[in-house]
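Table S2 (continued). Query chain:
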Amino acid sequence: MSSTRPLITPFLWFDHQAEEAVAFYTSIFPSSKVRSVVRYDAAGAAAAGRPEGSAMTVDFELDGRPFTALNGGPHFQFTEALSFVVHCATQADVDHYWERLSDGGDPAAQQCGWLKDRYGLSWQVIPDELPTLLGDPDPGRARRAMQAMLSMKKLDVGALRAAAEGR
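Corresponding output:
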């Protein structure tokens, strides 16, 4: 075992939209960029059933964190069993990330701060204050905050606070 910490990189499987999805995601988050694109050569394209010259993998960063996207074909789809959490300091941040990530996504898959984007990937857009409200030592405050959250799609931190306070 190495003495250095291993780097764990999320690897996202797309049918054929890896470059498009990466452009979408990197346009939303600060400190984001495409690091490299590996394209299918003739042999890889024949083996994978992909067009020669199309993107095979796209290595990119979202908010400085590494990711890889693969155009692997229609064999696998995203499920809600995997999601990415976007921690937001302010309601303006919640609004920004919610609006951008949900654009073109599945409105039926929106509840309690969760959304599914246009590529089927699930995200949780969460105000930093949410765990404090839900974990309030006063069980009545915590219960009211939970009930309010369960009635929301995009989370509203002001409404969550008001609910916790009984207003």
